[in-house]
Design brief:
Elements: H1 2-26, H2 32-43, H3 47-59, H4 67-82, E1 86-98, E2 102-109, E3 118-119, E4 122-124, E5 136-143, H5 146-151, E6 160-163, H6 169-173, H7 177-197, E7 202-206, E8 231-234, H8 236-248, E9 251-257, E10 260-274, E11 279-289, H9 299-319, E12 325-332, H10 340-348, E13 356-361, E14 369-374, H11 385-391, E15 398-401, H12 411-415, E16 420-425, H13 430-433, H14 446-465
Parallel strand pairs: 5-6, 6-7, 7-8, 11-12, 11-13, 13-16, 14-15
Antiparallel strand pairs: 1-10, 2-3, 2-9, 4-8, 5-9, 10-12, 14-16
Main location: endoplasmic reticulum
Subunit structure: Homodimer. The monomeric form is inactive while the homodimer is active.
Protein name: Carboxypeptidase Q
């Protein structure tokens, strides 16, 4: 009986807390009717998918400093102006790296029939140095981790180092795609620099992705500007081939990579404000990054994130809804190879940083959303019950709190105390196409994108109208 009484008391307290939260919501525009109306309206529109089609099919790749990136700035800004948003372009100086020729073939290996060589499919990493136009020829040393590289340091000088590290797709299939990517991407970001320090003439990394479609996955690498060796990603199949041949004996490659680092280029963050009413000086950001790598058309990384953020403004415009706080759509520039758009925004905002109530970014692909990730204090978690209840009918009612999300362009704002939010999406196959030539519009399911817009819009509205302060992120709010 005592257990039953305790249980009844707990239920009573939960119901009381829920009723209290719902009462607060009803006074701020965050009542169930408003949230359901917004969610339903977002699900009824293909505006975001249409904008994504414009971006990917009409413009294509959008690497920072490229004509495609410049065209995307103009396209997104004009679309937001047509909705009546208050648009501004924030200047950003961005890196301008361009890839050139990229070819490789295995020209010597044990058992090679006379006169034969084998082509290797690869792509230069962003920031890679260049070979001579005629290429270079060197023996390959295969390593599987940084410890093995150091253990074989005496063998590295004058050779091409291959980091053959498989992507852990089993982790990705079980909802841990982010950690799986982090494990693999460290070799792409740090491996070439470590190899260069030991005297390597070039560095190769096994593509960081889960599907073996003989696709090369590019991405940024960090090299010492005084020792910028050629660096490339090879396909998983070619990395495995090289490893098998190396087990038979010495393997030599002829490699040609001719990328160039040009002078920094002028570009912009696109900022579109949907002004608030009585708290218009307070800001809720909803965002994605506008730049993409240059192999595909950047549909899942991160055209879908930008289009989804644009869909937030379109939904509120269609419903003629004005939030209490200003909802600010940002299409960030240069997330992929520098993060300078985010740095420029942070530099320009310090006097008003405390007016940023929350920031949302979608940069984990266009998979089906199941809920929301948030870097809010534990004591604030209960405030989100009305929001998650409104998202439950579309299967997006999961709320996961963390002390920090460290989400791309928002990480600096988060460190300054601004709570970060991002959609919790299905990413099991995201790294099949990430940073490859296969990142194209057909990989985006329009229904999943509508669900993301519904989640983003409902969340942005909820944050823009909440009465109770949610607290600051990280140590400022724990």
């Amino acid at each position: 009986m005592r257990f039953k009484l305790q249980a009844l008391c707990s239920i009573s307290l939960l119901l009381s807390a829920s009723l209290s939260v719902n009462a607060l919501a009803a006074t701020s525009g965050n009542d169930a009717a408003h949230l359901q109306k917004i969610r339903t309206a977002a699900m009824d529109s293909d505006y975001a998918y249409q904008r994504l089609a414009d971006m990917t099919d009409l413009i294509g790749p959008r690497l920072s400093g490229s004509p495609g990136a410049a065209a995307a700035v103009t396209q997104v800004a004009e679309a937001m102006r047509q909705l009546g948003a208050r648009v501004s372009l924030e200047p950003v100086k961005v890196p301008h790296w361009v890839r050139g020729a990229e070819t490789a073939e295995l020209i010597e290996y044990a058992g090679r029939p006379a006169g034969l060589s084998q082509r290797v499919i690869l792509t230069a990493l962003g920031g890679s140095g260049a070979t001579a136009d005629t290429g270079l020829t060197a023996e390959i040393i295969v390593v599987h981790n940084f410890e093995e590289l150091q253990a074989r340091a005496a063998e590295v000088k004058g050779r091409i180092v291959l980091f053959d590290v498989p992507f852990n797709q089993a982790m990705a299939d079980r909802g841990l795609a982010g950690p799986a990517y982090g494990e693999g991407a460290q070799y792409r970001s740090k491996g070439p620099k470590a190899a260069a320090k030991l005297g390597a003439v070039a560095a190769l990394v096994r593509a960081v992705g889960g599907a073996n479609f003989r696709l090369a996955h590019t991405g940024a690498t960090s090299l010492d500007p005084t020792n910028r060796i050629p660096a490339a990603a090879v396909t998983a199949e070619d990395a495995m081939l090289i490893s098998r041949l190396a087990a038979r004996g010495a393997v030599s490659m002829h490699l040609t990579l001719t990328p160039q680092i040009l002078a920094d280029a002028d570009s912009f963050n696109v900022i579109a404000d949907w002004p608030g009413s009585d708290k218009a000086d307070e800001i809720v950001i909803v965002s994605g990054h506008l730049d993409s790598w240059d192999l595909g058309t950047g549909a899942i990384d991160d055209g879908a994130g930008v289009a989804g953020a644009m869909g937030v403004i379109e939904t509120l415009k269609r419903l003629a809804l004005k939030p209490r706080r200003t909802i600010r759509m940002i299409a960030w520039m240069n997330e992929e190879n520098g993060g300078r758009g985010a740095l420029a925004y942070q530099k320009n905002q310090p006097p008003k940083l405390d007016k940023h109530i929350a920031a949302i970014e979608s940069d984990s692909g266009a998979g089906r959303p199941f809920g929301l990730l948030a870097s809010v204090p534990a004591k604030s978690e209960a405030l989100f019950a009305p929001l998650m209840a409104a998202l439950q009918p579309i299967g997006a009612g999961v709320f996961k709190r963390a002390d920090a999300l460290d989400t791309g362009d928002l990480s600096g704002l988060e460190e300054a105390g601004v709570p970060s939010f991002e959609p919790l999406v299905d990413t099991h196959d995201y790294f099949h196409y990430h940073h490859t030539s296969a990142d194209t519009l057909d990989k985006v399911d329009p229904e999943n994108l509508r669900r993301q817009v519904a989640l983003l819009t409902t969340t942005a509205w909820f944050l823009a109208n909440i009465d109770t302060p949610i607290g600051r992120a990280l140590s400022l709010g724990k």
